[in-house]
Design brief:
alpha/beta, about 20% strand, Rossmann fold, globular, 7 strands, binds S-adenosylmethionine
């Protein structure tokens, strides 16, 4: 980022001018909650190893804003299951941006779940439930209109963890990088076997973010 303000070591990162404009448009009146989330990530999130210290200058752009724009793909008053939430990405970023959505965060590691519950409580997010489980263990118990994931696994494996948590007519929204089309190619067959339709790559947030977000969207036809 060229216009990032200087940060003292250990300080809570301030968004750059560009990131602030994006945050205001994405979070609206909930921008202070987004700031509090970034403060948690930069302090206890780093101390407890949920993110590496080198991520601190990139918390706004590469992490929170990049994830929050995925909420633009979601209809009002729907349910979202976020698989492998880790430090609440994208789940908590979406929950802050969209209080009308019901979020289920799925994370197997106990220390991450403890941290997620602390943050959810501190931010007063009453639209979030944290499940300590692997995605495979929740099939039949939790289902969403959207199933999200970022940096959890390659699509061939991720399809088997996400599609079974999607309601019929729902969508898997996997945040991916440049290798998205190769991953789709390799996962096509397993996606079809699991009841998924034709995956598509969509790029979102280009109007507000310096680096927009690439999402693989998989419609779920049957379950
Ligand atoms: C690299 S981290 C990514 C965390 C977060 N989504 C992000 O983008 O920062 C992957 C997370 O997936 C979780 N995970 C691994 N296998 C899983 C499974 N089968 N079901 C749910 N979560 C899983 C791990 O515990 C870890 O927190």
């Amino acid at each position: 980022m060229t216009d990032s303000p200087d940060q003292a070591p250990g300080a809570i990162p301030e968004p750059s001018r560009h990131e602030l404009a994006a945050a205001e448009s994405i979070f609206g009146g909930r921008i202070e909650t987004a700031r509090a989330f970034v403060a948690h990530l930069a302090s206890s999130g780093i101390e407890r190893g949920l993110l590496g210290p080198r991520e601190v200058p990139r918390l706004w752009g590469r992490h929170v804003l990049n994830c929050a724009v995925v909420a633009d793909l979601m209809a009002v008053d729907t349910t979202v299951v976020d698989v492998g939430s880790g430090a609440g990405l994208p789940g908590l970023a979406i929950a802050i941006a969209r209080p009308d959505l019901e979020l289920h965060l799925v994370e197997p590691l106990e220390r991450r779940v403890i941290w997620l519950n602390e943050v959810v409580r501190d931010l007063g997010l009453d639209n979030v439930t944290v499940h300590r489980a692997r995605a495979e263990q929740l099939v039949g118990d939790v289902a969403g209109d959207y199933v999200t994931a970022r940096a959890v696994s390659a699509l061939t494996t991720l399809a088997g963890w996400t599609i079974p948590l999607a309601r019929p007519g729902a969508e898997v929204l996997a945040i991916k990088g440049r290798g998205a089309s190769d991953e789709i190619e390799k996962a096509k067959k397993v996606i079809r076997t699991l009841g998924g339709g034709t995956p598509e790559i969509i790029v979102i947030g280009d109007a507000v973010l310096e680096e927009p977000t690439t999402v693989v969207r998989i419609p779920v036809l049957i379950r």
